[in-house]
Specification:
Layout (H helix, E strand, L loop, with lengths): L5 E9 L6 H4 L19 H4 L22 E4 L11 H9 L3 E4 L4 H9 L3 E4 L2 H11 L6 E5 L4 E3 L5 E3 L4 H9 L3 H7 L1 H14 L4
Parallel strand pairs: 1-2, 2-3, 3-4
Antiparallel strand pairs: 1-5, 5-6, 6-7
């Protein structure tokens, strides 16, 4: 998993509450267990018209936001079913950070396991960030996980809180497998000791 230390990128505004995982990645795209290729299906029902052409009104289809790496979204982001394809689709599109006032628990935890930083802020801070994100090509934010700060295009800073363990995992690029591999030496030592003490096992 890629480390997340400091990210400077375009932030796209999505002022919609209760964005569920079916909106993030519709069920038609759940036929794969690969983490790649899902970016084309991200917000598909909003991004594309029935004939498959792009919906020019959707934020990620606007030129300024086509390479957005940060999403500023409404309350209760990621609600609905627990599909892990939702963070996979965001990551495959290029989104590394989502900022909202609240997240559904399962989606929130899945983000950390896939290298995405979900940040919870107050409504007043979200309003400021939504305004920043509405500036088109000037909608550039810097998210510093070490300092736990978001810096806006005008230099204003917003502090955020995050669980220390989850922060450690993102800073070091550790998913569940990576965490296990950190214990590889201890596991190997135990296995050797156990084999010597219980050769019949």
């Amino acid at each position: 998993m890629d480390k997340f230390v400091k990210l400077t990128g375009v932030a796209a505004p999505l002022p919609v509450v209760n964005v569920d995982t079916d909106m993030i990645i519709p069920k038609d795209y759940l036929k794969t267990i690969k983490r790649t290729g899902l970016g084309t299906g991200l917000f598909a029902e909003a991004r594309y018209k029935e004939d498959g052409s792009e919906n020019a009104d959707f934020v990620l289809n606007k030129q300024a936001y086509r390479n957005a790496q940060i999403l500023v979204a409404g309350d209760n982001f990621g609600c609905g079913s627990s599909r892990e394809h939702a963070p996979w689709a965001l990551l495959d599109f290029g989104i590394r950070c989502v900022i909202s006032t609240s997240f559904a628990d399962i989606f929130y935890n899945n983000c950390f396991k896939n290298g995405i930083l979900p940040i919870v802020v107050s409504q007043s801070d979200l309003d400021k960030l939504m305004d920043d994100a509405s500036r088109g090509s000037n909608a550039v934010l810097t998210v510093d996980l070490e300092a736990q700060e978001i810096t806006g295009p005008d230099g204003g800073k917003i502090a955020f809180e995050i669980d220390a363990f989850k922060r450690h995992c993102l800073l070091n690029g550790l998913d569940d497998i990576g965490l296990t591999l950190e214990k590889a030496t201890s596991i190997s030592t135990f296995e050797q000791s156990n084999a010597a003490q219980r050769p019949w096992a």
